[in-house]
Structures are given as structure tokens and as C-alpha cells.
Amino acid sequence: MSKKVIPYKDSDLGKKEQITQMFDKVSSNYDFLNRLLTFGIDVKWRKKVVKIVQEAKAKRILDIATGTGDLAIMLADINPEKVVGLDLSPGMLEVGKIKVKEKGLDKKVDMVLGDSEKLPFEDQSFDAATVGFGVRNFENLEKGLKEIYRVLKPGGSFVVLETSQPTKFPVRQGYLFYSKYIIPTMGKLFSKDSKAYSYLPESAAAFPFGKAFNNILLKTGFKSSEFYPQTFGSATIYHAIK
Fold first, then answer.
1. Reported confidence tier of residue 1, pLDDT bands at 50, 70, 90
2. At residue 46, does pLDDT exceed 90?
3. Could you count the other beta carbons within 10 Å of the beta carbon of residue 7?
4. Of the residues 82, 86, 113, 229, which has the maximum number of CB atoms within 10 A of its CB?
5. Is residue 58 a contact partner of residue 72, using CB atoms and an 8 Å limit?
């Protein structure tokens, strides 16, 4: 990122600890606000990520920054041998574990507490890895990407869904107004942590999206990478191959 964006500017904690604290606080209503603030379009975006992974015929899948497990659960529907959802936030994982159990996916989906920059897995453990709206929260972006590269098998797919910035008028102006004013206001109304919903659009604005992030993936070592803007450029899907 061009600048370091953190949730709590008056805190002495590092970004990683602040992110954990933030998501623990918002975990109970995170899913509700996600659907509300994206008008449910985030589900459509996730389905496209799942389709890419399905086409790669991945048997073992790692979903990093899994949060409450939405993407991990959707990935389980394509019938892999195992899906591992990993996240820093115990609060988000607890919500995810309940969802996994309610859907009868206990044997298919493991929800694991862990750090994306220090993955607790051996080299070449997974056929595919995904991150849904999480790479911009990495404290050290390139370190996290290198760890993901490490645990992927050769030929493995890495699929990222992340927010981005529309560039064309008038969509860009509408998006900037929505992210600067509407998202923080809704966050204050419905969330236990109002600062979280100021941080999220700020971190999205600072993230190197599109070609810039694609180049970072190639620099990390991936042999190829393509990106696909979604919904007028408000999000982007990246597909890299090890």
C-alpha cells in the first residue's frame, strides 16, 4: 500500500493486533453489514471466485482471512477433499464455526486460528488458495503473499477478491461519496465499533488495485496472473498461478 492504514490511530498496537481487535468487535453483525453495504453483490463476486477454483479442480483449498467462513463454505460445495479456513480473529472464527456446523460441514471444513504471514502448513500443501476481502489487511503484504506461494503446489491457483476503485465518471464520484460518508454512517448505526467502518473504506482506497496488485503477485513469484474488475470496478478478482 502507498501508506499504512490502521483502524485505531490512537493505539500503540501494531496493525496485526489492531485488525484482530477490530474484527473481534464486529464479528457478531459482520455478515449482516456485509450484505447491507454491498447490496448482496459480494455473494455474486464470491461465486465467481468459487467457479475459478472449481475449474482448477482443486482438492485441498486454503481460504485465508476467512472471517466468518462465507467463502470457505461456498468452496465446500464444489466437493473438494478439504477446505481450511484461516483467520487471525477468534471472534470471527467462532461465528464461522457455528455456520459450518449448522450446514453439516464439520468434516469438510476446518476453521483454524492463524497468521497469513506465518502459515502453519508445510510447503506445497494446497492445490488452491483464496482470499476474500483480506489482503489489504495484511501487515506486510509481500510477506503474506510469499507465504501463500510457499504452501501452494506447483500449478496451484491463487484467487483474490478485493475491493478496488472505479475510475470512470460518474461511477467513481458515486463510489467515493458512498465509501466516505455512507459506509461509516451505517457502521456507526449498526456496529459495536464505529472506527472499523471508517478503516475499511480507507484501507480500500490505499490498496494497490488492478495492474499494480497484479504486478506485486508476479513479483512475488507467480508465473502468471490476470485480473477481472467487477461491478464497474468496485471490486476486482485476481487469478495467479504458481
1. very low
2. yes
3. 23
4. 86
5. no
